[in-house]
Specification:
Keywords: Signal. By secondary structure, the protein is mainly beta. The protein has one domain. The chain is 12% helix and 30% strand. The strands form 4 sheets. Strands 3, 11, 12, 13 and 14 form a 5-stranded mixed beta sheet that branches. It has a 4-stranded mixed beta sheet with strand order 4-5-6-7, with no helix packed on it. A 3-stranded parallel beta sheet has the order 1-2-10, with no helix packed on it. The radius of gyration is 18 Å and the shape is globular.
Length: 168
Amino acid sequence: MKKTTLILPLLISFSTLSAQVSIGKNAVNGNNTILDFYEDSTNIQGLILSTVDILPTTPANGTFLFDKTDDKVKMYENSAWVNLSDQGTENNIVANTSSDNGDGVIIGAQQSAASGILILEADDKAIILPKITKPEENVPTPYPGMICYDTASKTMAVYDGKNWNYWK
């Protein structure tokens, strides 16, 4: 019994440190993936970024969000916010009226110095964005801050509330 009580917490901590998560499917693609999404040629669902009224003061590099102050999708890199879209609109953003704020979720580590709703923390794993073919044609009602990988143009696509913006 003593061996079981010592080994079980050890196994749980090791599995948490190398966590891989798939959403909408049974397994992730590859060993170097921390988060992967449902994959089908008919997919029209992307990842919706946080919408903020005030930019975070100490973000981590690689932080993505939709900034309501100028209606742009942005990424934080090397002490600066980089615009990933033209000025869009926040007209279609629906306010979250839930009283449940939670503390966020960390995937890949026990803790993180970064703060956010969803934190992917790994030295050797990356996210695979939801894949959509021609989102400008196939997503009937995109949401401001939506991000995906366009399989037709082979680019990252972000929606600013008005238009899709593409990045190689």
